[in-house]
Amino acid sequence: MGDDSTVTTASLRLGLSADPLWDFALAFYARPGVEAACLRLQDEAGVDVCELLWLCWLYRHGLTLAEDPPGLADVRRWQQEVTRPLRGLRRRLKAEAAHGSGVAEVRRRIQRAELAAERETLERLQSLAAQAVELIPLPAAAPSLEISLASRWKLQKKAQLLAIQTLEYRLDPL
Predict the structure, then answer these.
(1) What phi and psi, each to the nearest 5 degrees, are found at residue 165?
(2) Fewest Cβ atoms closer than 10 Å to its Cβ: which of 6, 21, 58, 113?
């Protein structure tokens, strides 16, 4: 990597520290259509929403991954072993919680734990971005976010592609 690209990458990384991933994720997820798009991709295509939001955040900052950083496997393991089981339990209790206040309280506590696990995931992803040598500036002729994400997860179904289009449409440039 030449001096110019090193300086560019360093200045782009500074933008990441000024825009915490957690804050971005909360604001972006609250935009119209984003939650539904994320959940569709999660439920229909197995896309990890935290990783998806991380990639949107990087793209917004003009960065992309040349390849997955080694630490991403640890983050994915955390999601698999901690966050997904909490989500599954919360979802299984939904119907029962409607009929019992005790179960409803247990479900609320599980939901808070799930959110805390997701926040931990996003903090780990932000830390990974701060250190990853695999993080590079988006090339001038970079593919759209839609193409990049569809390619990453090999998405082909129309509803999934429309979900990604929604994300790209709702992503404000810096």
Answers:
(1) -60, -40
(2) 6
From residue 59, alpha-carbon distances to 34, 37, 73, 135 in Å are: 16, 17, 20, 11
What total of structural domains would you count in the chain? 1
* For residues 20-35, average pLDDT: 97
CB 133 within 8 A of CB 10: no
Question: What is the sign of the dihedral through the CA atoms of 22, 168, 52 and 37?
Answer: positive
In tens, the pLDDT along 31-40 reads: 999 999 999 9
**What stretch of H or E contains 109?**
helix 101-131
**Confidence band, pLDDT 50/70/90 cuts, at residue 149:** very high
Closest to 46 (Cα-Cα) out of 121, 153, 124, 156: 153
Q: Please give the residue range of the domain that contains residue 40.
A: 3-170
Which residue type occupies 123?
E
